[in-house]
Write a structure and sequence with these properties.
Blueprint: H1 2-16, E1 22-24, E2 30-32, H2 33-45, H3 56-69, H4 74-87, H5 90-106, H6 113-124, H7 128-142, H8 148-163, H9 167-181, H10 184-216
Helix pairs in contact: 2-3, 3-4, 4-5, 4-6, 5-6, 6-7, 6-8, 7-8, 8-9, 8-10, 9-10
Length: 219
Amino acid sequence: MYMRIIGLALSAAFLFGSPATAAPDKFGQDVPKALERQVLQARLMRLPYQKDKYDPEKSEQLLLKVIERKPDYYRAYFNLGLTYHELGDYEKSADAFDTALRIREEQQIDDFTLINTAGWSSLKNSDFPRAERLLLQAEKLTEGTDTYTEGAVHSNLGELYFLTQRFDEAEKHLKIASDQFGSKEAAYYLELIDRTQKVIIQQKIQIDRRMKLKSTGTN
């Protein structure tokens, strides 16, 4: 019986890692190596371009098992939010991101990529108030970092303000993303804004002409 218990403990340590094998991951959390490997495996499963590995349903299942073993695992919740986004379940995605955001704050994890990613997910799901709140927070945290994330934040804010027809604010962020970070998506939206504004000007000119014709009684 004693040997059986030892065998089970060794098997669990092999599968999930043990406190002795835990080491800081990229976000500074002490994580058993086996759990870290499983999260990386789940990450590959949710990426559409990983055609031979792509299986977001299995990614969800694996991440939930990891979280059972380590309920405060920041990176697992981060990836779970993205997995649910890939599956098209925005409510669960937002809940997973909220949990990751809470863990980030409680454990003072020095990472701003999550906030941009959660904001991006809200943007893509047309939850504009939440997207703006998160992206503005990410803008403050990334200011002057000269990182890919800083450029992505400005690009996302530009897209958000374009979709909500706040073109002046959109242009401001899109120009930063395009000029300073070389964002092709930002350049695309800048072109759309230019076209949209030209259409609006033409429509205004036509309306003014009609109003003048009516006021003069001319047919």
